[in-house]
Amino acid sequence: MPRAGLTVERLTRAGAELADEVGFDQVTVSALARRFDVKVASLYSHLKSSQDLRTRIALLALEELAGRAADALAGRAGKDALAAFANVYRDYAREHPGRYDAARFRLDPETAAASAGVRLARMTRAVLRGYDLSEPDQTHAVRLLGSVFHGYVSLEMAGGFSHSAPDSTTSWVRIVDALDTLLRDWPAPVPAP
């Protein structure tokens, strides 16, 4: 019988908070049970497994990111949209490091297709419409942005930029400027030899 007050939603939110505190890879049903001071078995009436819990946290994180991105992009285009979109990722990762990791959790194809990750991908392409890229260059640009955003945020969060000047925010602004310049002057494909 389910414990009073425990719901899938409440457990998912608590799991997301736990991820931010101890790291997404440390989130398990057992760790969540300790947080609520209940037996692990009592949570299995709500959650199938630790994999199910992690999947739910990933879906929550994607939903939160998509909501923030939609708000940030409203009424913006070009470089303003690019900067707003980039800052959503960086700010979210800094505020919610465990959830940010969860947003990159590998989902099965059906779950991924029904997730807010699809909205985020559409928003990325919407930002790129301001740069007049056609396929396959738009896909290359989507991959570039994802790589730069995630790579920079991961290195920054690991302390990789904390031992030298200028500060990481100054570099971040310059990188977004450089991305804007690159996207406005996207190189033509080089013919194969």
Structure description:
The structure is a single chain. Helix content is 68%, strand content 0%. The protein has helices at residues 8-22, 29-36, 40-43, 50-73, 78-95, 97-102, 109-113, 117-129, 137-157, 168-184. The protein has a single domain, classed as Orthogonal Bundle (Tetracycline Repressor, domain 2). By secondary structure, the chain is mostly helical. The mean pLDDT is 93.
Describe the secondary structure blueprint for this structure.
Blueprint: H1 8-22, H2 29-36, H3 40-43, H4 50-73, H5 78-95, H6 97-102, H7 109-113, H8 117-129, H9 137-157, H10 168-184
For the record, what CATH class applies?
Mainly Alpha
DSSP, total strands = 0
How many structurally independent domains? 1
Strand content: under 5%
Spans where pLDDT lies below 50 across 5 or more residues? none
The ordered string of helix (H) and strand (E) elements is HHHHHHHHHH
Overall mean pLDDT: 93
Tell me the span between the first and last alpha carbons. 68 Å
From the spread of the alpha carbons, the general shape counts as elongated
Structural class: mainly alpha
